[in-house]
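Class prep. Protein, please:
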Amino acid sequence: MKNIFKLLLIPFPWFLKRILLQLFFGYQLHKTARIGFSWIYPDHLIMEENSKIGHLNVAIHLNKIHLMYASKIGRGNWITGFSLKGNKKHFAHQLNRKPELVLGEQSSITKQHHFDCTNQINIGKYTTIAGYQSQFLTHSINIEMNRQDSFPINIGDYCFVGTNVVILGGAVLPSFSVLGAKSLLNKVQLNEYFLYGGVPTIPIKELNKTSKYFLRTEGFVN
């Protein structure tokens, strides 16, 4: 019955849907936040002022989604995780695991990406997850221990992540960085103001610190 209720909510007018989501699910939704025709049901949802989630997105089996001021998720994205609820043997050794997606102030995710939030995916402010079909994968099988492990992914501020990349658990993209299309980011990178790319990713060249993308005060790019 609960899933039927969730399904029935999807086409509701937003002003009414927002009230029902807050009342029945305890979500924190600013009056200027908005969700399109999408299946967005994490355990906890926080949407700050002017944040938006577009149409045809799915977000299930994760503890929390937090969209900060004026951040946006486009359309057709698949956001999943592995909930902390229930008595489950998977990831029982990871007591501090956070299955959540945090999207920083005025950052954006475009469309048709996959976010595996078995562990936290944290995206900084003024960052763009661009293009299509990128994969953010926080969990995998530990062959030596014969168990599933997960590690967070951290993307810094003012980053540009190109189309069709793969980013694995434990990876860090530092602030003021560009990750080139079709790259594989599988570890911690340290240097800001660099173009990273390749399989696996390596630093390619230093970027101009005065580039207008790194200095903008509005997330939207004309």
User: Anything to note?
Assistant: The longest strand covers residues 202-206.
